[in-house]
Amino acid sequence: MPDVQIATQSYRSASKRLSVQRLINGYAEPQPGDAKSAVAVFGAPGIDEFTTCGTGPVRGLYEMGGAAYAVSGQSLYSFDSGGTVSLLGSGIAGIGPVSIDGSGFEVALVNGSQGFTYNVASATFAQTTDADFYPANTIAFIDGYFASDRLGTNQFILSDLYDATAYSALSYASAESSPDDIKSVVNDLGILTLLGEKTIERWVNTGALSFPFQRAQSPTTPRGIAAALAHVKEDNGLYFIGEDRVFYRLSGVTPVRVSTHAVEDEWEKYGVIDDAFCFTWGHNGHKFITTKFPTAGKVWMCDIAAGHRWHERLTYDASGIEAPWRVNCAMGAFGQVLVGDANSGKIGVLNHDTFTDFGETVEMTLVFPTIHGDGKRVFMPEFEIEVETGVGLGSGQGSDPQYMLDWSDDGGRTWSAAQFWQSAGAMGKFKTRLRWLRLGSFYERTMRLRITDPVKRAVLKARCPRIYAG
Q1: What is the mean pLDDT of residues 69-95?
Q2: Alpha carbon distance 59, 277 (integer Å)
Q3: What per-residue confidence (pLDDT) applies to 398?
Q4: E strand or H helix at 262, and its extent?
Q5: Distance of CA 215 to the CA centre of its chain
Q6: Predicted pLDDT at 419
Q7: Sequence-ordered list of residues with C-beta below 8 angstroms from that of 417, at least 6 positions apart, any chain
């Protein structure tokens, strides 16, 4: 039977007749030339609970010196590899994500209106009260200084050397090439990078006594950032959402587009994007950049290792209602990937053998590329999907894991009333085949595959014969 392309990304075109492909809670992985298929799709890792810091939401995570730090609710906590939690201090206003960085012995954070520090040596937590510190959205440690944007201006400020609590009245500078406000400051490979509303500048440490940083002798990038926290460093690159709602990787001074037209078309529909934020995490050699749009209630993933393919992440609550993925932040610590919960104070650990997010169902969905009849009526006597079979559990839900298939013959506008279920095989039933028979006729058809049972998910390939009428 001829092969049918499986869904390997989310790509819903502005024209539904072109593409309505979606990949939700799964990721694509290119295979070597001698593998059964060129690309396989695996279920996204689930989340086990690691520990709990307060009542949440978890607004930021940071690892330094073998200890982990979390901003949960309005407090800062630390916790160790055994999950033992200590409250370090409170008073951090708001519920949105914070910006955190550290010097090795000091952790500093800002929330858009306040600054705070925790000194490891003295075990003291305090709000930054220096009169020369200003509200900021971002903070970055670089060459002994903490740099932060000065909210609502084209200026940035520097702390005193190795002291996040102290600032000088003269320790500030302005973005020079353009008058647009600075939204974010980033330490990008040892260069202080100022991300503005319309431009990007780079500053280097010259060691001058009056002010140690000077603008680098390189062109200014005529590209701004959409939101203060809509950037992330990964794989030796700085990624960000541009003010034009395009996702970029900064290569030197050149922003290289890594989003697709379909993703950009989707983002254009969001009324508010200035609250967007990004974070990154790794899994099985993949590097995933997560972009959350809180007002729109959407979460997108960019998989660097798979050629910047995009997929979507969703969470389903206890009632089965679709909601944005409940992770707010991530970090590597204690040899694991830890994540912070947007709905509570829970800290989770990613686990490929877990198929729930903090106990809630993770549904993996693939909406395949459309099968076209080239203007002719097509009969579909059989449709087969190759998946990892024989993975049923010993008892309970998942002991006979089910895959559900339905389809659309109108470009994903409506879906078949009937839902067709097939078993992926009880434990050890490795020769099970997922086949659906006598599926009628169409001029064009989009297949949709879903699985909610808590078992290993791996979709390898699909095939079907096509009989043309006339």
Answers
A1: 98
A2: 11
A3: 84
A4: helix 261-268
A5: 32
A6: 86
A7: none
Whole-angstrom Cα distance, residue 408 to residue 375? 17
Nearest CA to 197 out of 157, 147, 242, 131 is that of 242
The pLDDT of residue 179 is 80
What does the buried/exposed string (b/e) look like for 42-75 if buried means 16 or more CB atoms within 10 Å of the residue's CB? bbbbbbbebbbbbebbbbbbbebeebbbbbbbbb
265 forms bridges with which residues in the sheet?
none
Mean pLDDT of the chain: 94
Degrees, nearest 5: CA angle 295-298-301: 135
d(CA 5, CA 116): 52
With pLDDT > 90 as the criterion, what percentage of the chain qualifies?
85
Would you state the pLDDT for residue 418? 83
Q: How far is CA 61 from CA 282, 296, 447, 459, in A?
A: 15, 23, 40, 33
- Do you find a cis peptide bond into 57, omega within 30 degrees of 0? yes
> Tokens 């879903």 appear where?
450
| Cα distances (Å, whole numbers) of residue 285 to 38, 183, 288, 311, 448 | 18, 32, 10, 17, 28
To 10 degrees, the CA torsion angle through 270, 338, 332, 274? 20
What is the rounded distance in angstroms from the CA atom of residue 319 to the CA atom of residue 331? Answer: 30
Alpha carbon 62 to chain centroid distance?
Answer: 17
pLDDT of residue 167: 96
CA angle 90, 96, 100 (to 5 degrees): 65
Q: Which residues pair with 90 in a beta bridge?
A: 75
- Kindly tell me if the per-residue pLDDT of 470 is higher than 60: no
Coil, helix or strand at residue 194: strand
Q: What DSSP state is assigned to residue 124?
A: E
CB of 228 within 8 A of CB of 183?
Answer: yes
For the stretch 164-188, what's the b/e string if a residue is b when 16 or more beta carbons lie within 10 angstroms of its beta carbon?
Answer: bbbbeeebbbebeebeebbbbbbbb
Whether residue 466 has pLDDT greater than 80: no
Q: Where does residue 41 fall: left (phi above 0), alpha (psi -120 to 50 degrees), or beta otherwise?
A: beta
**pLDDT tens per residue, range 385-433:** 999 999 988 888 889 999 999 999 999 999 998 889 999 989 999 999 9
